[in-house]
Write a structure and sequence with these properties.
Number of helices: 21
Oligomer: single chain
Structural class: mainly alpha
Distance between the termini: 54 Å
Largest sheet: 3 strands, antiparallel
Order of helices and strands: EEEHHHHHHHEHHHHHHEHHEEHEEHHHHH
Radius of gyration: 37 Å
Length: about 550
């Protein structure tokens, strides 16, 4: 449950009231979970942040649990088995001959084994306590470590994948300074379920946001373009990432600006930090020596340069001196002797030709640089110049010989898009954070904006028809629920108010959709998570029931 999460200092704490090895919860305590800013692929904080932005909508009556699935263990085991089969060849190349040796408990076993065998790692007692393994009657009564202890924090850093024998082991999580913390209204825009979270989880959200912003380049590079996280406002609004990226703070062991200090740091990390500072000092001395040598070299060059310039000047005068001496002593025997004046006249003629050619080249270059002023581009007598087309709310794209509201090759949201996400696309548009191409809002997009000859045009046309039907029903329900005074007013709502209107519309529509279903509570909980084609089907079923219930005339 979200109530079991909180944040203190540089780490997140998770409570486990009961477990397999502690059924009554007598050995339960808050376990420290750390960020791994140097390896985002295994960072637990970033993973939780991505999940929170990518998960489906939850209605206000849903349980405050992290995972809604009831058979979570079997679902994870099924996924893990399918994943291992798909990557069996890769695993064999890594030395795993039998994929059956990997199971749902392999993660737990692997982390504990790595922590025990790591030189300079945490003690075995701290690992046993973290794993809730019994040490024996006497040991359990005398070793009283808890989650706030340094030993458990050290285990948490090892479990996060931080390198034990490197100064990076003391890495601080991406975070904000106190004056730069995002407000509740800002977090409410980024995290759609903000009002659903308990107060203890609210203090975790700024750190989740900081990890998302810090690793945004990794997310864009690693995840597919259709991943749900790119539908979130953090990636749909191009102003948010640069805004928060400038405020992110990091550090090793301590950040003097924010005052955050790393916990769970063994003494040898402090020694490594001092050695790193010595290396930095040596590099500074080495650079100072290089700079001094360069300064001496430049001083010598300043003394030599005047002499060199004088020599070059004298060498430059040699050709003229040679020509003058030749002209003074030239004498050609023949019928037409060449005099010095003849050679000077030939020299002047050649210079004139060269200058004329250069002048023509300059004129041609000026013509090429000037804008075209041909008669075809100018309005004729009595004609008015063409007016400039004013900008419109919907971006337009030119392809296929026409103006369209979508770029060429763009795909309309298909059957895997949740209904609430389509609602956001419908009123705010879709932005691809990879290419920064913006389309929409989708309420303006029609089938004529797509290539009719494309193989999937019929599917696109059907998707547009279903989306319009679902959105029309939801918008009318939002007005009936008084979430907005009119259909037109819904288009002017901000993001938070629009989400509230969607929730009100679902609540208004729910009585029509639930009659056929036995487990109404489960349907109510899942309605916002359903895709818009499924909602479309439920609307058709409701209309069919209403039609059959009418008395025949």
């Amino acid at each position: 449950m979200y109530d079991h999460f909180t944040w203190r200092d540089d780490r997140m704490f998770v409570a486990t009231p009961k477990s397999k090895g502690d059924q009554d919860g007598s050995r339960s305590y808050l376990k420290a979970v750390f960020a791994n800013p140097i390896k985002p692929a295994i960072c637990p904080i970033l993973t939780l942040a991505i999940y929170e932005l990518a998960k489906a909508y939850r209605c206000t009556s849903a349980k405050r649990v992290l995972f809604q699935e009831k058979s979570l263990m079997s679902k994870f085991s099924t996924w893990l088995t399918a994943f291992l089969k798909k990557g069996a060849d890769t695993l064999k190349a890594l030395g795993v001959e039998d994929i059956k040796t990997i199971g749902s408990h392999s993660l737990r076993k692997g982390i504990c084994t790595s922590a025990v065998e790591e030189p300079g790692g945490p003690s075995a007692v701290a690992i046993y306590k973290r794993a809730l393994w019994a040490l024996g009657g006497v040991q359990d009564r005398y070793f009283m470590t808890e989650g706030s202890s340094g030993s458990d924090s050290q285990v948490g850093r090892v479990a996060a994948g931080l390198p034990v024998n490197d100064i990076a082991f003391a890495s601080l999580p991406p975070h904000f300074a106190q004056v730069d913390l995002p407000s509740a209204d800002e977090l409410r825009v980024i995290f759609p379920d903000y009002n659903h979270y308990p107060a203890s989880f609210h203090c975790v959200l700024p750190f989740l946001l900081a990890s998302l912003v810090h690793h945004s380049a990794y997310i864009l590079r690693t995840y597919g373009k259709r991943h749900p996280i790119f539908s979130s406002q953090l990636f749909q609004n191009p102003a948010l990432l640069p805004k928060y990226r400038a405020k992110i703070k990091l550090g090793i062991r301590m950040n003097p600006e924010t005052g955050m200090v790393a916990s769970g740091i063994p003494p040898h990390i402090l020694t490594l930090e001092r050695l790193a500072q010595v290396e930095i000092g040596q590099d500074a001395i080495r650079q100072a020596v290089k700079d001094s040598a360069a300064e001496v070299f430049n001083a010598v060059c300043r003394r030599v340069d005047p002499l060199q310039e004088q020599m070059l000047t004298q060498m430059g005068e040699l050709p003229a001196i040679c020509v003058r001496k030749i002209l003074e002593h030239i004498q050609v025997n023949g019928a037409h002797p060449v005099t010095p004046s003849d050679m000077q006249r030939m020299q002047h003629d050649m210079m004139r030709v060269i200058q004329e050619q250069m002048s023509e080249m300059r004129q041609e270059l000026r013509k090429m640089a000037m804008p075209s002023t041909s008669p075809a581009s100018q309005p004729g007598p009595g004609e008015q110049p063409q007016p400039v087309v004013p900008p419109v709310d919907v971006p337009l794209f030119t392809w296929g010989g026409a103006l369209r509201r979508v770029p060429e090759g763009w795909t309309y949201p298909r059957s895997n898009v949740a209904c609430r996400q389509l609602w956001m696309y419908w009123h705010f548009g879709v932005r691809d954070p990879h290419t920064d191409v913006f389309v929409g809002p989708l309420r303006h997009v029609v089938a004529a904006d797509f290539d009719k000859q494309a193989p999937g045009f019929n599917v696109t046309k059907a998707s547009i028809s279903k989306a319009k039907r679902v959105m029309s029903a939801l918008r009318e329900a939002a007005v009936k629920a008084q979430a907005a005074p009119s259909l037109q007013a819904i288009n002017t709502l901000d993001i938070v108010s629009s989400r509230a209107a969607f929730a009100a519309a679902l609540a208004q529509m729910f009585p029509r959709l639930r009659e056929k279903h036995v487990n109404n509570a489960a349907l109510e909980e899942a309605t916002g998570c359903l895709t818009y084609p499924r909602i479309y089907q439920l609307i058709l079923e409701a209309e069919e029931r209403e039609k059959s219930a009418q008395p025949s005339s």
